[in-house]
Amino acid sequence: MKAEEINKLYFSDIKSPPVQVNRREFLKRLGGGIIIVFSLSELAFLTKNPEDDLPDFNAYLRVKEDGRVDCFSGKIEMGQGANTSLSQVLADELEVNIDQVDIIMGDTELCPYDAGTWGSMTTRFHDPLIRAAAAEARLVLFELASEKLEIPVVQLVAEGGKVFAKSDKSKSVSYAELTKGKKIVKSVSEKPELKKPDAFKVIGKSHLRRDAVQKVTGKAVYTADIRLPGMLYARIARPPAHGAKLAAADISAAEAINGVKVLKDTDFIVALHASPEIAEQAVGAIKTDWEVPPSKANNETIFKHILATAKDSKVIHEGGNTETGKSESELVFEEEYHDGYKAHASIETHTATSVFEQGKLTMWVSSQTPFGTREEVAKVLGLAKEKVHLKQIFLGGGFGGKIYNQQAVECARIAKMIEGTPVQLMWNRKEEFMYDMFRPAAVIKVNSGVNKDGIIKFWDFNTYCAGGRGTELFYGIPNHKTTTYDGKDVHPFGTGAWRAPGNSTNTFARESQIEIMAHKIGMDPLEFRLKNMNNERAVNSLKLAANKIGWSAKKLPKGTGRGIAVGIDAGTLVTVIVEVNVDSTTGTIKVKRAVVGQDMGQVVNPEGVIIQAEGCVNMGLGYTLSEDIEFDWGEVKSNNFGNYKIPKFSMIPEVIETELADAMDKPPQGGGEPAIICMGAAVANAVFDACGARVFRLPITPERVLQALNK
Amino acid sequence: MAEKIQFELNGKRVEVEVEKNQTLLWLLRTRFNLTGTKYGCGLGYCGSCTVLMDDDPVRSCGIYLEDIGGSKIVTIEGLEKNGELHPVQKAFVENDALQCGFCTPGMIMNAVGLLQKNPEPSRQEIIDGMEDNLCRCGAHTRIIDAIESASKMMKGVPQP
Fold it and tell me: Do B103 and A347 touch (CB under 8 A)?
C-alpha cells in the first residue's frame, strides 16, 4: 500500500482494516496439526471467496503435533506488547499455558498478509478473531477427544493443554496426543462459542512482557544486529536539503580508501566497506555539489504558508447551522492554534539488512509494514513480490515512523547492485531526522459560541493539515461544522502518521477552546464539560480522571495549576488531567502529576494498557513542551537529540495514575495511542490555571509562556 | 595505522588489531558481535551505547580505541553471572521497565554504574543519574521504579 493510502486511512482513524488476498498456496507449506485460519478483513467473520473452496485469511493458528500452539500474524512487535497480549488471548480461549504459545510476527513467507501495525488495530481487530479461532480449535480438539475417550463433548473440559472428563479428571488426553499425525484445516465458523468474561483466566490479568528477558540481556535481535558472512556496511551521499539536485560528484577520493567500494547510479551514490566507520569516512570523502531550491517557509513562517497553500477543503462533520448558532450565542470566540513539525525519533533509526542471491532478496527491515515494504521493494527492483522475503525482527520503536521504509528500498537497490554480498544500511541520526515523515505542522481555526447558561451553541472547527482524526464531537452542540484543509506541496518534506496522527493537534485546539469558553463565562471547566457532553463514555473517562485527582473548583496556590483534556482515538474515550508548576519569572513548566481516565472496552492486559498510557504521557510531554523541527524549507536543521529535545527523566511527572473503565463485556478498543492526544491541551490548560498565560502554539516553551504573560 | 591493543572484555583478556579513529561501539558490534550495545545517535546524546569502562558508565560511541588499552570493559552481555540475571536486569523485567527494548541495554549499564557509586540513591538521584539516557517509548517511570527495586535487591549482596 502506498504511503498516501495509508495516511488517508490513518488520519481518519480506521473503521475497517484493508482487505487482503487468498492464501491457498500458503496452506500447502504448513506441516501437520490443527490449523484454524481467520481473516481480519471483516470485523465479524469470514466471507468465502466464491472462486475457491478456501476463505481469505490473514492470520492463523496451529495446534502442533507436539501440543504447542503457533500463531502467525502479519503484525509486528515494536514495544507495544502485542506479542504478549496476543499470547494471552490465545492461551485463555484455547486453555493452554501461555508458555506453550509461540507468536510469529511479520515474516512475509511464514505469516499471512497484513497491511501494517498501526492505528491501534492489533487489539481492536486481531484479538476478537484470535479468540474465535482459538475457540474453534478447542472445539476440534474436543471432538477428537470425545472420540478417543468415548465421552460426549458436553461432558469434557480443557485446561493446561489437556482435555479431561468433567466427572473424572483421571480420564484425559493431551492436545499433543490428539493432533499427532493429523492435518485438519478449518476456518472460523460463524458463531464460535467464546468464553464469557467471568471465565477468563488470562485475559484481563496483568502479564509481564514475554520478550523482556531477551531485551534486558542484549539478546533481542534488531535489524542492525543481523550479521551475515562477508557483509558490507553502506553509507549514502546525502543532499543538504530536500528537493536538492545533484550538480556534480567526484568519487575518486573515496574510491582511493583501502577496501572501499563506491556505487553510483545517477544521484544515488553509496560507499561500502566491511567497517561501518570506514564506510562513513568514505562517504565523507565524496565531493558533491547540490542545487538547493529557494526557501518558501521556515519553522516561524510555516503557519502563514499553510493557510495560503492548504486550499483543498472537505466538510467532514456537520449539523444544524453555525450562523444560527452564532446568533444565539452570548459570547463568541475566534481563535487560531499552531503546531510545528514533530519527529518520530525512535531510538532505533531506520535500518535494513539484505542479501540478493539467485534472483531472490532476503531482508530484515525495521518496518511497521513488512508486506507493504515487500511490495514497494519488489516494484522498485522489478521483482515478483514472491522474490522478496522480509523476516521477523524486533523494532526499536515505531510510533508511525516505520510505516515508511525508504531505507529498505535503498538497501535493496544496493544488495542487487552487489549481488551475492550481504549489505546493511543503518541510517545515522542525521539521516533519521532528514528523512523522517514528520507529523505535519498545522493550523487550526476554531470559532465557537456559548449562551449565558454555559451551553455551547455553535462550533466551527477548521483544521489545516492535521486531518480529521479525533474531531468527532462528544459535546452535544446543535450547530457544528468541521472542515479539513490540505493541499499538495504544502510541506517542504515528507509528512505522515505520528502516534494518533493529527489527533494531538486537533485535541489541543478543541480542548483549549473549551476551557477558554468556560473561563470566560466563569464556569468550572469540569462542570462546563459535563454540562455539554452527550457521550456517556466520554463522561465516564472524565469522571474517572477527575475523581482520581480529586478535582475541585477551588483555585490552587499561585504558580500551581490543573488542566483537563478529553479526547477520542481508536474507539477509546480518554481524559488526561495534569497538575503543573509554572515559574512565571522564567516561564518554565514542570508537570508534577498526570491522571489518565480511559474507557476502552475490554482490557486484555491491564498492566500493558497502563504502561501504554504512561508511555503516552511521557512521550506526549515532548511535543507539548520541547519538540519542534527547526528548518529552512527543505533544509532540516534539527539533526540530533541536542537540538531536538525529546523527554528526559527530569521532565516526566512524579506520579502518573491510570484508571480504566470496567467494560470487560464490550469489544476491545485501542490503547497504544489515546492518552498522548490529550497532553498538549491538558498542559496548556494547566499553565493557564497556574499563571494566566494562554499559549496557542505547541510546543509550550518558556518563551511562549512569558510572551503570553506579557500580553 | 593498525595498532594492537589489549583490554579486558566481559571478564576475558582480548587482543585486537585496530585502526585509529575507530570507536569502541563499532568494535563491540562488528568485531565481537556484541550487538546488545546499540547505536542511537553517535554523539553521546542518547546513551544507548553505554558500557562500563573500569566500572564507569561511558558512551562507547565516543570512546576511541587508542584510549581503551589495559582497561576493563563490561557490556550488557557480560552482566549475567552463572546464567543468573544481574539484579538490575531482573528488576527491569519485574517492573516492566521497557517497551521496544532498544534503549534498555544502555539504561541498564548506566544504572549498574550508578548503583556501584551510590548503592542507595534517592529518587531524585536516580533521575539525575539517568537524565542523559533517552527512552522514546516513555518507560521512564518504570525505569526509575526498577532501579529503586534493584537497589533494594542488591543490599547486602556483593556488587559485581
Answer: yes
Which residue stretches of chain B are H helix? 24-26, 87-94, 104-117, 123-130, 140-154
B159 pLDDT band, cuts 50/70/90, is very low
The rounded distance, in Å, linking the Cα atoms of A563 and A508 is 12
Q: How far apart are the first and last CA of chain A?
A: 48
The Cα A459–Cα A476 span in angstroms is 10
How close B89 comes to chain A (CA, Å)? 6
Place of cell 486550499: A311
Going by C-alpha positions, the residue among A325, A663, A670, A313 that lies closest to residue A476 is: A325
Q: Which one, of B125, B157, B116, lies nearest residue B144 by Cα?
A: B125
Of the two residues A129 and A366, the one the predictor is more confident about is A366
Among partner residues B39, B41, B101, which is closest to A641 by beta-carbon distance? B41
Reported as a single tens digit per residue, the pLDDT across A252-284 is 999 999 999 999 999 999 999 999 999 999 999
Residue A165 C-alpha cell reads as 472428563
β A635-636/A631-632 pair status: antiparallel
d(CA A62, CA A34): 5
- Answer yes or no: are the C-beta atoms of B136 and A345 closer than 8 Å: yes
Q: To the nearest whole angstrom, how far is the Cα of A186 from the nearest Cα of chain B?
A: 34
pLDDT at A37 over 90: no
Angle between helix A606-625 and B140-154 (nearest 10) = 120
Q: Which of A203-212, A336-345, A416-425, B95-104 has the lowest mean pLDDT?
A: A203-212
What is the 3 state secondary structure string of A67-85? CCEEEEECCCCCCCCHHHH
User: Measured between alpha carbons, how far apart are the two ends of chain B, in Å?
Assistant: 36
Residue type, A46: L
Burial class (CB in 10 A: 0-12, 13-18, 19+), A51: exposed
- Please spell the DSSP secondary structure of A261-317, one letter per residue: EEEEETTEEEEEESSHHHHHHHHHH-EEEEEPPPP--BTTTHHHHHHHH--EEEEEE
- Percent share of chain A, pLDDT over 90: 73
Please give the backbone phi and psi of residue A355, each rounded to the nearest 5 degrees, phi first.
-145, 140
> What's the distance, CA A21 to chain centroid?
24
Dihedral sign (CA B129, B134, B140, B143): negative
Task: Find the range with the poorest average confidence among A290-304, A437-451, A664-678.
Answer: A664-678
If contacts are CB pairs under 8 Å, which of residues 79-138 in chain B contact chain A?
79-80, 85, 89, 92-94, 96, 98-105, 108, 126-128, 130-138
Q: How far apart are CA A289 and CA A283, in angstroms?
A: 14
* Contacts with B, A 7-66, CB within 8 Å: none
Cα distances (angstroms) measured from residue B44 to each of A398, A519, B25: 22, 45, 11
Amino acid of residue A274: A
- Residue A142 C-beta-side C-alpha neighbours within 13 Å: 19
CA-wise closest residue to A394 among B35, B111, B81? B35
Q: What is the pLDDT of residue A22?
A: 43
A397 chain-B contacts, CB cut-off 8 A: 99-100, 102, 136-137
Sign of CA dihedral A397, A400, A403, A408: negative
- As given in the structure block, the three cell numbers for residue A436 are 523522517
With a CB cutoff of 8 Å and minimum separation 6, the contacts of A506 are A444, A461, A463, A466, A467, A468, A469, A470, A471, A677
Give the CA distances from residue A477 to residues A316, A387, A452, A527, A677, in Å, rounded to whole numbers and listed in that order: 15, 55, 15, 16, 22
Alpha-carbon dihedral A523, A525, A526, A527, rounded to 10 degrees: 20
What residues have CB less than 8 Å from A337, skipping those under 6 apart? A443, A444, A445, A446, A505, A508, A509, A512, A696, A697
Of A667, A656, A446, residue with least CA distance to A537:
A667
pLDDT of res. A19: 37
